[in-house]
Amino acid sequence: MTVTYLDLTPSQRAALDGLPFEGNHLVSGPPGSGKSILAAQRAVMLALTGTPVVLLTRSNLLRQALAGVVHVLGPSDRSVRVTTAHGWLAEWYGNRPGGDGDGWYDWNALFDRAAETGPAPGLTLVVDEGQDLPPEFYLLCRMLQARTTVFADECQRLTDTNSTLAEVARNLGRCTRHEVDGNHRNTQQIAAFAAHFHTGAGIPDLPERQGPVPRLHRFHERGAADLLILLAEAHPRKRIGVIAGSKHTQFSVLGSLQRRAPRLKSQLYTSEAKGGQYRNLDLARPGIVIVHRASAKGLDFDTVVIPDTHHDASTDPSSAAVRMSYYVLATRARHELHLGYEGETEPPLLAQVGSRDLQRG
């Protein structure tokens, strides 16, 4: 069997090769450790054993990104299918099994169907960002006796319906735990800034790769477009991710860019779109992509701009939820990180970060 490895370090390759084909496995690691690329590689390797594999994500935007990776890797018979957990559940159930008000389906209806149908022979699942799926999902996997590999980091939860690593392992039943380490995405400066918002035990080691210190900008109203145009023109081959806290900010930034720099052909994603230009993106194309914070998980960009930190000014800076959010957002950046605010004063959450880790102006 020939396996194509895509952009893996020796330690990542060893971690992948060390995963047995059989059984349930939970792989955890910090941001930048390569969990998403390992998830895609794992799905392809399992498919090469002769069984179809479903690679699942919580986010539709992450699904698009991983589908592109799987397309590059193969296999040629397309025996790896990439879909969202919601999409797969509805397909397995046969129709939409109703909702329970938290954005998920009626788990009791899903459990009843699993009890009626019994185990699903040969069902093989790989889950990326598995902490963002609820504990009930893993109980269903256990009922179906699915061969399940989960990649997760509970310090990157962005939803209310999520699972701890302990819940994932417990609900899957027999499950082997594995860890990957290292930060192969961020520069030392970005990781040092992100460490101010880390909520788990033990801050990950800083990477060696160097880059500019993250920068905080005071914007005039709708002034983020000035910075974005400057960045896009200075680095035309780079991918720039704008991660906004609201749909209003997303479309405001897009409107400014379309009026002032239509040549940049900026892209925007919203989960509320049913199709078309705001639903299906070309994530491999250089340029500006505007996403909501809720859709940022698992993605990475050469440069990240968080334009509206002033909306968090009234939030308790000690809040674990907001700190975890900033930890996730900051670690999406590979080389440059810019944050912006409107108004007279810095948001308290950022004001507490010293100039060594966050430059101003």
UniProtKB/TrEMBL annotation:
InterPro entries for the chain: DNA_helicase_UvrD/REP, P-loop_NTPase
UniProt keyword list: ATP-binding, Helicase, Hydrolase, Nucleotide-binding
SUPFAM superfamilies per record:
P-loop containing nucleoside triphosphate hydrolases
Q: What are the recorded GO MF terms, alphabetically?
A: helicase activity
Mind telling me which Gene3D superfamilies this protein's record contains? Answer: P-loop containing nucleotide triphosphate hydrolases
- PANTHER family associated with the record: DNA HELICASE IV (PTHR11070:SF17), UVRD / RECB / PCRA DNA HELICASE FAMILY MEMBER (PTHR11070)
Protein name (Swiss-Prot/TrEMBL):
DNA helicase
Lineage, highest ranks first: Bacteria, Bacillati, Actinomycetota, Actinomycetes, Kitasatosporales
